[in-house]
Amino acid sequence: MPYIIYILAIIVFMPLGLAMVSGALRMKQCERFDNNNPRQQMTQLTGSAARALAAQQNAWEAAIVFIGAVFVAHLKDTPLESLALAGFVFLIARLAHAFCYLFNFATPRSVCFITGFLTCLYIAFLA
Fold it and tell me: Is pTM beyond 0.70 here?
């Protein structure tokens, strides 16, 4: 099976892992979940809990772009094996992006974001 399939699986489940981190930090900050108004409670988060939530949301957005790029490449009959290196670059960039988001490294986070986005453009270019 092509490596890009495994990378897609990791990218899809990454936001869920960040959701667990975000939830734990939210519970630590708020002491309880407000199940009646969870989005309102999320707007009140600060510090690492707010960054973890933002990292989770950004991971969902990036996953959609990456999945779309791989899907277009697949529709254009691009050999999936040729996407492996780009997929690994994207995966590393996104893992580093989440790390930078959680630990408040703004400039490196932006570099990771741009690297991931350019990787998606590269995959679309291969198609």
Answer: yes
